[in-house]
Amino acid sequence: MCELNVVMLRGEEREKIMESVARIVVEGDSIELTGILGDRKTVSGSIKEINFSTGLALILGV
C-alpha cells in the first residue's frame, strides 16, 4: 500500500501536516487528508507535488 507523508510549504518553511495518508480529496482550496486508521484533517492550500516513490505530498499553504 502507498501511504504518503504530507508537508505544508509556506515560503521557505516546511511543516509536516500528517503521516500515513491514504486518501486526499481536493475541493477548491480545501484539502481533506485521511490517514490509514481513519483519522482526518482538512487544510487550505493547493497541491504542488505528489511523489509516490518518496512517499511525499507537498501542499502550498494559503
Structure report:
The protein is mainly β and 62 residues long. The chain has one domain (4-61). It has no helices and five strands. The chain has strands at residues 4-10, 13-27, 30-35, 40-51, 56-61. The protein has a five-stranded mixed beta barrel. Strand 3 (30-35) and strand 4 form a beta hairpin.
Layout of helices and strands:
Elements: E1 4-10, E2 13-27, E3 30-35, E4 40-51, E5 56-61
Parallel strand pairs: 1-5
Antiparallel strand pairs: 1-2, 2-3, 3-4, 4-5
- The residue ranges in which pLDDT falls below 50 over 5 or more consecutive positions are none
Overall SS class: mainly beta
Q: How many beta-strand segments?
A: 5
Describe the biggest sheet?
A: 5 strands, mixed, barrel
Tally of separate domains:
1
Enumerate how many helices there are, as a single number: 0
Query: Strand order, biggest sheet?
Result: 1-2-3-4-5
User: How far apart are the first and last residues' alpha carbons, in Å?
Assistant: 30 Å
> Helix amount, in percent?
under 10%
Order of helices and strands: EEEEE
Rg, rounded, reads 11 Å
**Share of residues in strands:** over 45%
Oligomer: single chain
For the structure shown, list the relevant keywords.
mainly beta, 62 residues, 5-stranded mixed barrel, 74% strand
Concise overview:
The protein has strands at 4-10, 13-27, 30-35, 40-51, 56-61. The N and C termini lie far apart (30 Å). It is mostly beta strands.
